[in-house]
């Protein structure tokens, strides 16, 4: 009888072993792994953004994800909430509510179990210094009792509570930081975070929202890694129990063509101009004409990339590529350049400007001054609307339209930023009877500040239109170049000879006889064109609202920089030569000093000429390392 019972017992034990080890093994293994194994997504470090000289514009700093164990904290959550709330910058009530112990049912393979909330995230992306403040606050926490008089077990509980009640994930997180705050904010943009799902697991990754952060998001982000490790019931990693790990691949650094020194100069002078004339907005773009590199790009009003949400959305608008406006007289460079290139006019050919009043197709076109006979070059010098219209009539609609498009208007420039618009250029079949006389003076077309800057840069660059270049190269974390972006010529818009003729005409604008005498510099020859355009609105042009502009370059015969200043609705004054030319001059002078650009006006004193001769003719072609 005993033998039979032993056999039955061993059979039952064997059945139980087979049931656990064979039949239920997969489910039990998953349950064990779920309780002990922790699969973590290892976020790569997002790459830095730097200027052409290697100066830091955007970077990622270490941060922590702070979590709590409510089941362990229990009745002491009010003490802990009061201690850590100031350091987490959260309200005590929010933390107190988060620390409330809770029990929930979990169903897995038809097995129901009760689970307590042992892991509650209080805040993500906490800077390391703030996490240290939280740790110190917990270490110094008292619970209103004389712990020396408490039983040993209670004293041990309080010690464990200070160490383990509030903790931080061992996996490092990062926070995006812009050291220069609002400097080049419209170029840099800003980054946020988003929740993603990889292999059925949710994770948080950084994401660019505007500017370079958005345009180069995939390059900056890199690729995530994985770590599978064993953890105890309080989510602490058990030493020497790491199972498997794949290292993340960090993102690439983006090196811009922006020069921080020039950007500082531009934003400083732009702020001074805005304070004086109180416009709705203002934009400056600085380009190196030979390469198309954008050395500076600024718009006011602006924002701090660290806190983009504290300003209205319009402040974050990059008006250099997103706003369009009728360019006014700056557009006269197109019709005169086309006339030179098509050989229908020479600089010395004379145009009768009708003493300031010209009737065409039943409509009167006027100049600001009663001008008579002017040379074609003089039409640029004195910015005659009538002279430009008559040159347009001589050129013809099809050829005029062709050169408008050849200069890059009506198409995307290809700058490395999202949100760029094409502007407005109507095909000839949609022109009115007046268009042939209005387009030459910058009406019935709409351009972006960057488009008109690149068109002027084409004239400064011997007729070659370059694609605007904002990113110089991509580098890995060791400083090795991964990708280098070469300058790219879009097309030869006009010949070298025609371009030189245009430069000579544009020099006269920055003279005592021209409309931009306030752009004139003592030691540098500048060339450029003013623009004063009445703003278009519903039903026609709006009285009292203007866009003033000046686009110029220097030194005129070997241009180093093209600088455009566009001002929207200045309150005091509205002529381009009055509002924008002085700002151009100050930016140019300070930039010349910063870049050591050699003066081109001779006749300096011997001592000053000696200093000039010792200066390099151009800025250094090498850039600072990290």
Question: How does this model look, in words?
Answer:
By secondary structure, this protein is of the alpha+beta class. Helices cover 34% and strands 27% of the residues. The chain is built from 22 helices and 26 strands. Strands 2, 3, 6, 7, 8, 13, 21 and 22 form an 8-stranded mixed β-sheet that branches. It has a 5-stranded antiparallel β-sheet with strand order 15-14-26-25-24, sandwiched between helices. Strand 2 (49-50) and strand 3 (56-68) form a beta hairpin. The longest helix is centred in the first third of the chain and has 22 residues, at 2-23. It starts with a helix and ends in a 12-residue tail after the last helix. The model is unreliable at 604-626 (pLDDT under 50).
| Number of DSSP strand runs | 26
- The overall average pLDDT, rounded, is 87
Which geometry do the CA atoms define?
elongated
- Unreliable stretches covering 5 or more consecutive residues: 604-626
Query: Which percent bin holds the helix content?
Result: 25-40%
Give the radius of gyration: 34 Å
What is the CA-CA span between the terminal residues? 87 Å
